[in-house]
Amino acid sequence: MKINDPKSVKEFLIQRVLLNPKRDNDPDIAKHLSYISKERLIKPLIYVGTTTCAKAAGAVKTFDAISEYIEEHQLDADLVKGGCAGNCKVEPLVDIQMPGKARISFQNVTYEKVPVFLDEILNNHVPEGLVLGQYRNPIYQPWDDVPYIDELPFNKGQKKLLMSNCGIINPVSVSEYIARGGYQAFADTITHHTPARVCDIVEESMLAGRGGGAYIAGKKWKISLNAVSDQKYFICNAVESDPGSYMNRVIMESDPHRVIESLLIASYAIGASKAFIFTRSEFTLAIERLNQALKEAEDYGITGHNIFDSGVNIHIVVKEGARAFVCGEETALNNSIEGKRAMPVSKPPYPAIRGLWNKPTIINNLETLINVPLILKNGPEWFKSIGNEKSKGTKLFSLSGKVNNYGTIEVEMGTSFRDIIGKIGGGVREEKAFKAIILGINSGSYITPETLDTIVDFEALKNVGSALGSGACVVVDETSCMLDIAKFFTRFFKNESCGKCIPCREGTARMLEIVESATRKPEKDNSFQTLERFKGIMQLKGMADVMKDTSLCSLGKSAPNAILNMLANFKTEFDTHVFERKCPASVCRDLKTYTIDVDLCTGCTACYKKCPVDAIIGSPRQPHFIVQDKCIACNACFEACKFNAVLVE
Amino acid sequence: MSFIIHVNNTPIEAKEGEILLDVLRRNGIKIPTLCYMPGFTPSGACRLCVVEMEGKRDLITSCSYPAEEDMVIKTNSHRVMKAKKSLVEMLLSNHPDDCLYCERNGNCELQWLAEEMNIKERKYFSEKKTDKRDHSSPSVYRDPAKCILCNRCVRVCEEVQLVTAIEFISRGNKTTVNSAFNKGLNISSCINCGQCIMVCPTGALVDISHIEKVQSALTGSKKYPVALVSPAFVASITEQLNLKPSDKPAGLITAALHKIGFKKVFDLGFSSDINVKLEAMLLKERAEKKIKKPVFSSCCPAWIKYAEEFIPEMISDISIAKSPQQILGHLVKNHNNVTPDDPDRQLYTVSFMACVANKFEASREENTHKGISEIDATLTVREFNKMLRSFGINILRLAPEKFDLPFNSGSNAGLKMSYSGGKAEAVALELNNIINDTKSNIKFTPPKNPGSKKEVKVQIGKQEFGFAWVSGIAEAQKYFDELKAANRTDIHYVEVMACQGGCAGGGGQPIHWSYEKPRQRKKSAQDLEKNIKIHSPSQNTMMEEHLLKFFSSGDDLKTLHTRFKKREVLK
Amino acid sequence: MDSKLTSIFARFPNKQRDDLIPMLHEIQDKYGFLSEDLIVEAGKYLNISVNKIYGVATFYDNFRFGPRGKFHIRLCHGTACHVAGSSNILSEIEKQLKISNGETDKYGLFSLEIVSCIGACGLAPLIEINDEYHANLTLDSLKNILNHYRENHNTIYEDQ
Predict the structure, then answer these.
(1) What distance in Å separates the CA atoms of residue A488 and residue A259, rounded to the nearest whole number?
(2) Which of A538, B99, B462, C116 is the most buried (most CB within 10 A)?
(3) Which residues on chain C are in Cβ contact (under 8 Å) with A402?
(4) Do B165 and C59 touch (CB under 8 A)?
């Protein structure tokens, strides 16, 4: 095999690796693979993570600076746009691997640092301050005095199975993916297992849907497998429209071939010849990389017509949604693919029997699916050994909010939220008091200081009135108002309700109005409005129950969760708003009053200049005054005042 | 196969594949619905049909859930009742609440539900909806504020009528039922059939009312109001009041209209005869010219608008005869047959129809002559009922009166035109009378099997003629496609009615969504037919005399022709 | 019908209903928004009722029916951004530019769109202006950013 000849690499990877059951015992193959996977190098290799979050931190500028440097110095090095290892805080992240040396990661490499930084590292000198850690490499020497990546606090508590390639491989290189063990599970499946056997294996592994219902995936697949139809479909649901979760995006951007392989196995298992990856149109990079990866896979004969001469056809198409949260619901998703308004349809009939274009269709969450190649490769027993008694495998989270470390994390089922926050997240920022973890909008539930020891497990979460949700994990501290967050969620649901069924359409709108009335300016309260406010609040619980009971789809059923859980966990805070008309966290603007202490004010005009609505009057060197009718409680004067003369109540 | 399900602790029988709601309703169990329409796939939008099912965490909707053996159902548990009441309360939370001023006051499904569920106060407060109203259409008036988004109008418009003039626009609680770009119905593809009005549970879709202008014509000193009563209208009143032919329904209506203040009351059966005769003549002419393509009836204005918008290539095969309403309007206004008793008064023609598209038809440019419209106002059965109430007239206590001269006689063709299939028969009979003679008889037997094609072949003279009839635009379009695909030459006449069941299911009928009502009206019409002595237009001597008097030359007959043209709308 | 539209249509030879949303995406990419004429043309090509297309297009947040500003601001309003104070950022933008979600200012300079999550929660709150990210915003830095864009195009203001 010639490493520089793509044709020869392709031939080798297909014939000697994918279609060779004895591949694992051949040291010759292993050596070749280590070259293809870039574990063994001929020339220096520079990876720049350029996923969406890295871009936001300026990774594209860094990439451009590096490529300029390479050109300028006529370096013989590979520069690759890589994926994301999950650690958002350290972006822009640059990885460098020199021949003979282990790979090393550098953090916060903004573009202006590039020349100096490259000068040093290319001379085998580790630049100070920027180093994050090094990867373990079985072949090459480690660097001295550089910590191992997997020993960093952020990574130590994690178990990276699904993300094992993320941030490490070139996302759009099928050869690297195969060299790191990819598509082998698919090749073995299609040549050795019947579809029914694949369903059995997946069912045996107890892989549960990560989308919310925790339905055993293999069971669901069997329904479609046994349905008689000329055409079946498999859909990978990667809509991920929960604001605050972005794990699917990270996977699609960093390891698109894994998604494709999973979908191939799954489609084979139910006999679907056409599969869709349904994602959001805003994920432009993910779509681009998926399409590129699909092209490569097709070139290798891994997808398409008569795969590996097995007679199996599986065509995969990437479909873009057009932004509607409800598309995450199975039947709405089908409608969206069919080009209709994404309104959910009553179940039964279930999509597994009558789905897309009335054909049997299985829709699985992306995160559920990407477990499948691992299960087929290592066996169901292996998968069952991960996690705890009830919940198997790992779980991805998008950790964000007021924690020190944030990003995409993967933890074993059974890990406690205390560990996630304290160890992986590095604790709450600025030493503020922890208030809650918000677990995704569709569960609308909170982990409170009292339930922080809850573990990541379907049942354990249910017991504390919570649910695993989408994987968003937003940490809030004492400066956040829970009523405000509940209001945010309710407004989200109101905006995203499809409008079809009464409880969701009217319920979400009424609920929002009621919660808003609780935070409205007291001055505007006349006695009728006060009565209305209390009446509304009394109806809140009853209305929530009806919404849960009667809504057509899970969106409507989960819409009231945020309010119900807020009432269950933060009743005192809620009551303070309602009865005392005060916001303990000083977030709800209308309940705040700003005044200026005449004795403390020096008339420096700092607040006057900052006030965006001209609510502050006064002449220089004279005490100022806030006109309450104009004040929007933006807090600008409070921040501007150096003499603590602005009082907030 | 049938099995037992347990409902409210009572076992009842259900059949395999049956939907739970059907089982429950068949057994007399009250299940309210707002979005359910028999014959349509369930939409599950209103959630009012929820019931409690043992083993299910949430309530289930009986409209979409299949009956399962041994299922245990509760339809009136506390949980179910509370849920239903809350749903209605949610709908009312931003409803305009102007029932007093609402067309559907007293006949509103939402009002009924609120009353049944004993809702005494507004439980959830929200601002009342104030969406922009749409007066732009000549037939249909929309008040989106009263819309509860049940989806029925949208589905009828799309699935039954293929028109899709209205659709859900926007999302969530901002959703409205509207036309593209929120423009008026007048520039949409709406064909004015009024089927949306018939299915609307509230007052969000009602007809454009002509009551006000008719009343001012009746009470003012400028107009000489003349009523033109269509046979379909008579059949509808007959059915509504459960009259027998011996009660002389047409006579009662005439008496009522005289009492209300109409100076003359004429029978649209008279012009129906002319219309049928014209079409039979056309058919004969085409047969002589050996034109292979069928001719399509032109009396339904909604179907005409559909053809003008969607299938303009078919216009040349549509009969050029004016509709009965316009023919009589023309005769009344242009031939000095009717002279107002006071020279200061102008003729004011008011037609009484089972249709709202006629309101649009009267406003068409072709149907005016020198700037004077042939028909000044059109009242539906609903509007007539309302007028009777306002005048305090109990129609049953009146003594029947005769239609006024000169337009007082019609054959039973007019009544036949009130239901689907009838006009095809009338034209066939008339064609026979023209080709053979008025004494000869032919048999026109519609197929009994409901699934079979609605076609009849009749031997008339030397030729076999094929007659077909379709109602509901979806059915019609399907038939046209079949005709075209099979390249058929054996069909000569196709009767097209835009509303399912013909005028018996017309958009101007009393509001009652069911398949049963059009059938009953058809039955009423057929009963009335038997009492009419004149069996075909050719036997209508009054009409023949009239035609001879005013239409001595063929050119004169052309004034009773109309024309259609391709129509550009937002579609 | 111009050649841009013809070339878009040429990519959908099957004229299926499921081509609708991808086609609307492409039209919007090329023209910036979905005008009435474009929707009518798409309807004619796909043989779908204009009312249906408008119904579909208004269902999804992605489609606009008016032109964008020269600078298109996308404000992230995900959970993490909300916790970090994106509501304040939003009201500041609304106040400064006098536009709300989905609107374009009268000079055609700025338009505002609220998106549910850009996916860069670690950098909250953030906005994206014409594909350029501005992260970890404060009210002050927002003002500076907006002024920067404004000043570089003050000629537009004078012209008006």
Answers:
(1) 32
(2) C116
(3) 83
(4) no
CB-based contact B16:B66 (threshold 8 Å): no
If one counts the domains in chain C, the total is 2
Whether C22 and C97 map to the same domain: the answer is no
Domains of chain B, first to last: 2-91 (3.10.20.740), 106-207 (3.30.70.20), 212-560 (3.40.50.1780)
Is residue C64 domain-resident? no
CB contact under 8 Å between A243 and C77, yes or no, is yes
Q: What chain B residue is nearest to A504 in terms of C-alpha separation?
A: B172
| Chain B residues 163-182 with CB within 8 Å of chain C | 164-171, 179-181
Residue C150 and residue C75 in one domain: yes
* Lowest-pLDDT choice from A140-149, A640-649, B53-62, C145-154: C145-154
CB contact under 8 A, A400 and C22: no
Q: Which of B220, B225, B217 is nearest to B264 (CA)?
A: B225
If asked whether residues C91 and C151 sit together in one domain, one would say yes
The tens digit of pLDDT for each residue in A89-148 reads: 888 999 999 988 999 999 999 999 999 989 988 888 888 888 999 999 888 889 988 999
- Chain C residues whose beta carbon lies within 8 Å of the beta carbon of residue B169: 54-55, 58
Q: In whole angstroms, what is the distance from residue A455 CA to residue A413 CA?
A: 8
Residues of C in contact with A241 (CB under 8 A): 116-117
**Rounded to 5, what percent of chain A is helix, strand, coil?**
45, 15, 40
Q: What is the pLDDT of residues A354-399, one digit of tens each?
A: 999 999 999 999 999 999 999 999 999 999 999 998 889 999 999 9
Flag if B50 and A549 touch (Cβ within 8 Å): yes
Residue in B59, B171, B175, B202 to test binding to A, most A beta-carbons within 10 Å:
B171
Please check the confidence at residue C160 and state whether its pLDDT lies above 60: no
| Interface predicted TM-score (ipTM) of this complex, two decimals | 0.92
B570 contacts in chain C (CB < 8 Å): 40, 50-51
Give the helix ranges, DSSP H, for A37-173: 52-56, 59-72, 114-122, 153-156
Beta-bridge mates of residue A476? A436
Using alpha carbons, select from A375, A477, A368 the residue that is nearest to residue A430: A477
In a domain? residue C101: yes
Architecture of the domain defined by A6-151: 3-Layer(aba) Sandwich (3.40)
Q: Do C152 and C76 reside in the same domain of the chain?
A: yes
Task: Say which DSSP state A350 is in.
Answer: P
Distance from CA of C133 to the nearest CA of B (A): 29
Question: Hey, where are the domains in chain A?
Answer: 6-151, 182-382, 394-480, 483-580, 593-648
Tokens of B451: 């699934």
Q: Which CATH class is domain A593-648?
A: alpha beta
C20-25 contacts at long range (C-beta below 8 A, 24 or more positions apart):
C20/A339, C20/C46, C20/C48, C20/C53, C20/C56, C21/A320, C21/A321, C21/A322, C21/A336, C21/A339, C21/C56, C21/C60, C22/A319, C22/A320, C24/A322, C24/C53, C24/C56, C24/C57, C24/C63, C25/A281, C25/A320, C25/A322, C25/C62
Per the confidence metrics, is the pTM higher than 0.95?
A: no
Residue of C nearest to B188 (CA): C51
Beta carbons of A451 and A383 less than 8 angstroms apart:
no
